[in-house]
Amino acid sequence: VNRAVACDGWRVAELRLLPEEFFDWPALLLTEHERGAPWPKCLTVGMVTCLAKVDKNEGNTESLQQVAPYAEETRPITNLALWVSLWEKVRYEQRSAWRYSWMHPSMHGTCRNVKHVSWKLAMIIEKLHNTAERFSGASINRKKFFDLLQAQIVMPLLEDLGMPVCIIDAVKRFYTQL
Asked: Which residues are 48's β-sheet partners?
């Protein structure tokens, strides 16, 4: 994770300078949230910044510094506490086997992205469209996962799929307190 100062005042570069033993204390605290402890206020603050949308195909880095004249030309980025992001990343990585236990082979995760399925998917959609068959689909990008989906919709689905309730409850409490 590379970014500027997070809401809690930490930078990734600063965390990398700390001795490994330091992380035992935050790990214990974050585990307590999974056991029902409320999140501290300093971790449940988020700052939303609206950045100008940039066409990555243009390769124009100067436009990154421009101010967008219209709200529709921006995208909101929520900056949370770095400790919350790290907790989510660790739990996400620990649930890899669980995710692949219910993911259909056509679903893609680590080391695969839309480029790997776009042509095949385009052909399937074209066929269904031409035959007037009904179809639907979903796309989940882990990096934007919580920005795109409502927590009250996602959490029951994750529970039905077998995610540990203690993690789901910790996330629910986080969103309630955010």
From this structure: 78
